[in-house]
Amino acid sequence: MIAFHFPPLMGSSGIHRTLNFVRYLPKFGWSPLVLTAHPRAYETVSDDQLAAVPPDTVVERAFALNTARHLSLLRRYPAFLARPDRWVSWWLGAVPAGLRLIRRHRPDVIWSTYPIATAHLIGATLAKLTGLPWVADFRDPMAQDGYPSDPKTWQSFKRVEERVFDRGSAFVFVAPGAARMYRRRYPSIEKSRVFVIENGYDETIFAAVEAETDRTQPLNPGRVTLLHSGVMYPSERNPEPLLAALGELVASGKIDANRFRLRFRAAVHEALLRRLAAKYSVERCIEILPPVPYQEALAEMLQADALLILQSRDCNDQIPAKLYEYLRSAKPVLALTDPQGDTASLIHRYRAGLVAPMESKEEIARALPEFLARLARGSLPVADPSEVRNASRLERTREFAQVLDGVASAAGARAPAAQEAPPPRRP
Predict the structure, then answer these.
(1) What long-range pairs does 412-421 form, CB within 8 A, spacing at least 24?
(2) Is the Cβ–Cβ distance between 328 and 302 less than 8 Å?
(3) I need a labelling partner for 144 at 20 to 30 A (CA). Which of 27, 30, 81, 212 fits?
(4) CA distances from 20 to 26, 46, 108, 389 (A)
(5) What DSSP line would sit under 401-418, residue for residue?
(6) What DSSP line would sit under 262-317, residue for residue?
(7) Cα–Cα dist 96/92, whole Å
(8) What is the spatial distance between Cα 332 and Cα 301, in angstroms, rounded to a whole number?
(9) What is the rounded CA–CA span in Å between residue 8 and residue 388?
(10) Coil, strand or helix at 306
(11) Beta pairing partners, 171
(12) Cα 21 to the chain's mean position, in Å?
């Protein structure tokens, strides 16, 4: 399992997909080996999720550098050292490390997950050198219209992507729109090799946090708190229309700034939020708070009055991973996203809240007071816990194991005898 995002990296929702696959795959007859990057390559690290890695899991941390940090002079570095990404040096360490793992443990399948693009580059190389079947996992689409913005970097993404679809045995996406897009882009790929395994939430961790959290204790007593948990990207999750609408609503008296708080937790782009809050005179009702350990972030979701998600229309084929945790929190969700996109479809599927387009200040100015009024009346829909269970990480891993079973069987890997427990396999 080739994954850049893995503990002790801090601050990426992508960690949870790989980590929970690692935790739950043994329940379905698979024994995972993890090939990840040395922690020196990470922007920030934390030990809070290391304990979630099963102690008997083989984890190989291969040589890797962050080009911007380790190979720059006066904050400048040659562009080719950051193509397809700033961790391309990981390929140099991961290929020999991966070959050693393969010789020692004889795995049945290779799996890699994007982003980071270099992970698929490593997967392609190991699949070519060993002949093992390779499953490529896309948490986001790769070469998109206008992304990456640098033409040479875009071309490097496209080359990696073409190698994936030339050599891969199966292709997994986290949103239906992304799967549809890639079937159109590569029409020669059989539909039977394309799968959708959405993200999810970890019930074990959630239940433990819930047992220790007083959900009746508000985050801001006497005030309604709308929480956004996670990174605010300046374009894909542009907060300006929201803060502009909030400024108009506060100025007109439709929202009482003394009784409302919009909380941003671990937004990363904090300077942008402060600048916009000042621009639209909403500093009184904005809270910008630093990252906290994962379990504390979940507890905060459980105590918030309502939850906020933002996703631009050019990300219609993507679903923010934290939305599944929002659903499990059983709190109303205000989704500022294109009503025609996959994020809105998920909200509608679980009847979990209201949707308004992120880019429209006018639509937000209409939706936000309605949302708060219905929240006060208790008439907003929330996800049904009995329906949300199918989005647990355990159920997602069951789907993943079925993909691995099919790929391994098609490649002629050993198959369990009928009526017998399957021998452990290794991705």
Answers:
(1) 413/108, 413/109, 413/133, 414/108, 416/29, 421/29
(2) no
(3) 81
(4) 11, 17, 20, 15
(5) HHHHHHHHHHTT---PPT
(6) EEEES-S-HHHHHHHHHHTT-GGGEEEE----HHHHHHHHHHSSEEEEEE-GGGTT
(7) 7
(8) 11
(9) 28
(10) strand
(11) 136, 194
(12) 14
DSSP 51: G
Per-residue DSSP letters for 174-186?
A: SSHHHHHHHHHHS
CA angle centred on 424, ends 391 and 118, rounded to 5°: 65
- pLDDT recorded at residue 168: 97
Q: Would you state the structure tokens that stand for residue 146, as one six-digit string? A: 């206008």
> How many Å apart are CA 116 and CA 371, to the nearest integer?
37
Tally Cβ neighbours within 10 Å of residue 15.
Answer: 21
297 in helix, strand or coil? Answer: helix
Tokens found for residue 344: 């809105």
Work out the average pLDDT over 49-55.
93
Q: Does residue 424 carry a pLDDT above 80?
A: no
Report the number of secondary-structure helices (H) and strands (E) in the chain. Answer: 15, 12
Give 3-state DSSP helix, strand, coil % of the chain, rounded to 5. Answer: 45, 15, 40
Q: How far is the C-alpha of 208 from the C-alpha of 403, rounded, in Å?
A: 30
Question: Length of the chain, please?
Answer: 427
pTM value is 0.90
The rounded Cα 49 to chain-centroid distance in angstroms is 16
CA distance 267 to 288: 8
Tokens standing for residue 151 = 């033409």
Band (pLDDT 50/70/90 cuts) for residue 125 is: very high
Is pLDDT above 90 for 170? yes
CB atoms closer than 10 angstroms to residue 38 = 15
